[in-house]
Amino acid sequence: MKANENYIEVNGKELADPDRTEMISGISTHFKDILTLLKFDVETDQQIVDTPRRWAKMMVNELCSGCYSPEPKITTFDNTNNYDQMVFLGPIELKSMCSHHFKSFIGNCYISYVADKKIVGISKLARIVKWFMRRPQIQEELTKQIADYLEKVLVPQGCAVYIEATHLCMVARGIEENQNAKMITSDLRGCLKNADAKQEFFSMIRK
Length: 207
Known about the structure:
Elements: H1 7-11, H2 17-37, H3 51-63, E1 76-78, E2 86-98, E3 104-114, E4 118-120, H4 122-133, E5 136-137, H5 139-154, E6 158-167, H6 168-171, E7 183-190, H7 195-206
């Protein structure tokens, strides 16, 4: 399984509870070894003694949960009134993790689509973002994955995804000179690549 992939899609089955428990146990053991190699007291320091298990549970059940959870149930509806204008949602809170350093990147995601035969409840759009964001990955691929999924589920006339995020791998490490820098990525498809629609999408983000 690659960093930004889903275990269920790759293996054709869900991660069973005993397997998840074994994974957390193994990660906890190895992370304890890492802390020991860093010369921390993992036996008696009350601040650290339970850290390996806390860290393992956080990785499996939270920060990487999109790798192990099933695809969200996305209910679509027939576009009975032939609505053909832009649907926009944002900002959607984004919390993901860089696969290069396993440091978080945090920001906002904006989604838009122009319906063809299907429309979708806006809460489902936020669920799509959450499912994909909880994986180790680079922002460019996250942006594309969300756009790919929108096209697959909605088959719209066009869709767009815009993400702006602060990367802690720049803020908390390295030269640490870019505390306020934000990375911006976008993916515009179909009719939303047209100049007028593109301008409308970005003007909604600015508002």
